[in-house]
Amino acid sequence: xxxxxxxxxxxxxxxxxxxxxxxxxxxxxxxxxxxxxxxxxxxxxxxxxxxxxxxxxxxxxxxxxxxxxxxxxxxxxxxxxxxxxxxxxxxxxxxxxxxxxxxxxxxxxxxxxxxxxxxxxxxxxxxxxxxxxxxxxxxxxxxxxxxxxxxxxxxxxxxxxxxxxxxxxxxxxxxxxxxxxxx
Length: 183
Fold this sequence. Notes:
Elements: H1 2-7, H2 10-56, H3 65-86, H4 88-106, H5 111-127, H6 129-152, H7 158-179
Helix pairs in contact: 2-3, 2-6, 2-7, 4-5, 5-6, 6-7
């Protein structure tokens, strides 16, 4: 197995990894949500903690400043990961607001209508969290997996690619609906 992996070009390995991650997201997105939120929160906290230690506290990048900076990064990472899990519904609602506002603004709506559309979509996504996450992860994961597979195979047919994304996305929605319980 390792001989096979080492003989592949890096682009092919990236495509294979994207296919695997995309499929996992497509069929298990709702179950993977909390893990992704914890990882994202930890990474954001670690970056903020490192920046705070290095830039704000002016800790030197030699011993013991590096240790203190890394310790601050770890503590901030753990704290933000814990907070992220508690307020993820709010975060998903904010994402819904940004998408609604952005699309409305791109379509030429004025500021107040765009704000209203964004607020409405944000509230709707926050209230209907599970269906919104399932739809986004199923079709997002399907798009990633199919696009990477088509790239790996050097197959270029946008119509067939969209059809495959749609069918795999529907299968992902069905699997997630059957395998996850309602919050």
